[in-house]
Each structure stands twice: as structure tokens, then as C-alpha cells.
TrEMBL record:
Tree of life domain: Eukaryota
Enzyme superclass (EC): transferase
One protein family per Pfam: GST_N
Protein known as: Glutathione S-transferase
One GO MF term attached to the UniProt entry: glutathione transferase activity
Keywords: Cytoplasm, Transferase
Length: 173
């Protein structure tokens, strides 16, 4: 191979086939879009109609049949937090997580807290009615207050070169 045609393994990974199955409204899909865009990774988007799921989505995600699904060279990756970690480990430029292991673990904790506590409590505040809704609103406010206390006094979204903007990618909407 001539030297002008040589490519590094990293360039081959970047040039590889990458497809993202998503919807316009999924905050879990958007966290993947933001991560790919932040890292400057080119990918194809396949928008799914969740009321009429494509055979490809069902093939790539036979367990949950939901988005997002990132397909890299024919290999499907499922669940947005898992996809984010894969993206960060595969494309090293512009890390999504801080270098310090303790700070990485803390970021992962808050992402899980957002998925397991914050989002369900907000959803319940919208869909419940009467006394159940009142209780759900209190729970959502408590969960949001917990996140707010963690963010108070911290410089978030400072810029692309400061890791403190990156935990936002780990929190879904």
C-alpha cells in the first residue's frame, strides 16, 4: 500500500459504517446524537416509527424493541448509556467522561439516577391523576432538587474543552 493511501486503525474506525436508529422525540436517542456530534463522528440516522417498528429495529434489538440502537459495522449496541461508553472507548477524541476514575464513577452514578429516579418521577407527575399525581409531583420535585443541589456552584457547560460540560450528555433530557 502506498504511503499516501495508508490509514491508521483509528481512521478505519471513523470511516466504518455507523447507523443510529432513533426517534426525534427520544431523549435517550438525543444523548447519543449529542455525543456523536461532540466527537465529530459521521453516522447515518434511521428514524423509527415506534407504532410501526421496522424489521431492522426488531432484528437489532430483539430484547426491548426500542431505540436508540447504534449499529457499528453490522454490530448492534443497545441502551443509551452503554452506547455512550462504547462511543467514548472507540473514539478517543473529546472524552465524554472525566479522566479521574472517581469523577467518572460519579458521572455514571448521576446518569443512572437520572434514568432510574428523575425521568420516571417526572413521567408519573404527568400521567397520574388526583392524589397519585400530587404525590408524584412531590417525588419529582425531590429528585430534581437532589440533582440541583449537586449542580449548585459548579460550572456546567463551560465549553467543549472542559469536561464539566460532558456530564450533561449522560443525563437524558
Amino acid at each position: 500500500m502506498a504511503s499516501s493511501a495508508m490509514v491508521t486503525a483509528n481512521q478505519l474506525i471513523i470511516m466504518a459504517e455507523l447507523k443510529l436508529f432513533r426517534t426525534w422525540s427520544s431523549c435517550f436517542s438525543l444523548r447519543v446524537v449529542w455525543a456523536l456530534d461532540l466527537k465529530g463522528i459521521q453516522y447515518d440516522t434511521i428514524f423509527e416509527d415506534l407504532s410501526n417498528k421496522s424489521s431492522l429495529l426488531l432484528q437489532y434489538n430483539p430484547v426491548y424493541n426500542k431505540v436508540p440502537v447504534l449499529v457499528h459495522n453490522g454490530k448492534p449496541l443497545l441502551e443509551s448509556l452503554v452506547i455512550l461508553e462504547y462511543i467514548d472507548e472507540t473514539w478517543k477524541q473529546t472524552p465524554l467522561l472525566p479522566e479521574d476514575p472517581s469523577e467518572r464513577a460519579t458521572t455514571r452514578f448521576w446518569a443512572k439516577f437520572g434514568d432510574d429516579k428523575v425521568l420516571p418521577s417526572i413521567w408519573n407527575a404527568f400521567i397520574k391523576q388526583g392524589k397519585d399525581q400530587e404525590e408524584a409531583i412531590v417525588t419529582a420535585q425531590e429528585n430534581l432538587g437532589c440533582v440541583e443541589r449537586q449542580l449548585t456552584g459548579k460550572k456546567i457547560l463551560q465549553g467543549r474543552d472542559n469536561w464539566t460540560c460532558r456530564p450533561c450528555f449522560w443525563l437524558a433530557c
